[in-house]
User: Fold these one by one.
Assistant:
Number 1:
Amino acid sequence: MSLIGAYDAMTDQVLILEVDQEWNVPYWTSVPTLLAAMVKPTSAKHGPLEGQTSGFVRIGKAQH
């Protein structure tokens, strides 16, 4: 799971904060590219996750 660290409304891009920064550095990508990646099924090389799609978790302040 990687975090979206920022959103740039001027360019409609998000900053992806990779969890494994030994191999991947943070990078900017467009919102349409992010959404396309989230609905693309996982390949067979990921074993039991094959065919699964991503999603998102929204974290926010609890409302009382």
Number 2:
Amino acid sequence: MISYVTTNDGKVREAREYLADVRAVDFDYTEIQAAELGPIAAHGAREAFAHVGGPVLVDDAGLFVDGFDGFPGPYSAYVEHTLGVDRVGDIARRRAEETGETPRAQFRCVLAYCDGEGFAATPDAVDYGDRRGHDLSAEDRGTASTTDSIDAGDVPVKLFAGVVRGRIVEPRGEGGFGYDPVFEHDGSTLAEMSAAEKNAISHRGRALATFAEFYAER
């Protein structure tokens, strides 16, 4: 059984389209400040693993606007609650008009998986933590597992990324949440899509699909 650390029922429903044995766990892990999603999700996965004592999934996601070097990115939730979705959309579109560029953006999601064991070398990223990894060879990293000398802050975490590309538009649609009304993909905003349509192309769904392939062999 995988514990998906979230209070969002929609995330769990989406995960169950790819994974048979998954449950939601409400755990308030420390959300560190970082310029990328991976370290944030990895830190949360380590804390969650120490709390749950078994396989865990933690995700972090954000809207990355091309014209602003990816901002708001990892700070998307904070910016949504302070500046507001409509304001972010206005700023992105205004800058695009001034530069003559298309206001392109990406939704990105990183899933972090931890089960206390090491990972064989694969193309997928592995976060070995701040202490672990600097003194391990590549071969050792591939076969490392938890021991009495390694606490939950050191166990390796495997990362799976998903991206959906689109552009920033005037708000449209009544569905979804967050930045969905201002993010258009293939002619429709995410807020105009049904749940099934959105899940079929979502950044989280793409990360989950990659993870599910890995987990089937795990």
Number 3:
Amino acid sequence: MKDLLGKAILDFQTNNNPQNIITETDISESEEMDINYLFRKYEEMPKIEQKALDLAKGKILDVGCGAGAHSLHLIKKGFDVKAIDISPNSIEACRLRGIQAAEVKDILDLKDETFDTILLLMNGTGIFGKLINTTKYLTHLKTLLNPGGQILIDSSDLIYMFDTDEDGGVWIPMENKDYYGELTFTVEYKGEIDNPFNWLYLDYNTLQNAAHANGFECDLIYEGDNCDYLAKLYI
């Protein structure tokens, strides 16, 4: 990976001629995103993210921290926060922003540490990549939880993006896919295009079933207006 999203984040943080990024998926056209959005403050965040931050407690792990907006808010509130991301540029930006415990790390490689709250926000199920990987990730996340700990994770049901026929049925092209929420993303920045990557959106019922199958309780905490939701997983 060229780490173009991370490059955009670092360019913004260092005022190095930052530009908007362009994202595209295999089921949607390209969209331009203002990189400033990733540096938003609590007051500018969607309700789902605000709710997750309000529920965070104890020692916190921010998975896929990006520019560190969630971590910074929690650190300012006095929490002990570890921020991880697979993007070296993003982690450099986080450190420049004052997040000392920021580390380039894949969640599956994090071991021998436990937390009271694990945050997976901005479509936290995305890191699973494909539906088949859900059990692998949930099993590993369980090893990172302290007794009484919680995982706060958000996602969206993408069923609304597909065509509905006269009988109310939904037409979903499933070529090379096991589930309609499996997307392939590409990111473009300053004329460069990064390698495509898999990104998973899970509807709540599917997440709940996977959670139960892996020994978690799963509560629906909040539903947004765009088929999005926040869930809490715990033992």
